[in-house]
Amino acid sequence: MRVESSFTIEAWDANGRAVGIETAAPLGGAFIIRAISGGDIEGRSEVLFAGAFNEKHGSGTYVAIDAFEGTIAGKSGTLAFWHANTVARGRPAAGGGLLHVVPDSGTGELAGVSGTGEIIARGDDHTLVLEIQFDDTDEVEIDGEVFAGEVEAGTSEPSA
């Protein structure tokens, strides 16, 4: 199901940390709070954001992860989603942005949610768009510690 709402940035708190390696696109981070309303998604999210931006050329990339609480299509709960995007010389880079709901991050009526989406920014107007589905089965058993080690090692299949 496709759901969307506009959002505003209520707080942007740059963390003031800097890396020790200087590039032409300096790295920075922030903690963001957004208010999401005016459509199928109502609530707020707290965001951990990291990015690199070259002001001279208008090029950069960001990655972020949101912890959302509220309602989506009338269902209440929390979930997490991550997103990233790149702009090259002031234009969206090939491939566009990415947004994915973190698997098994949903609580309450949002338990079992999965999906993708996008964040659309046009000037000062921002829209969160999600393509989501719900699966309430909980039949998979995976040793989380073993699986995490395999992901870090570059494999994606859990061992038997």
UniProtKB/TrEMBL annotation:
UniProt name for this protein: DUF3224 domain-containing protein
Organism name: Pseudoclavibacter terrae
Domain of life according to the entry: Bacteria
Pfam families tied to this protein: DUF3224
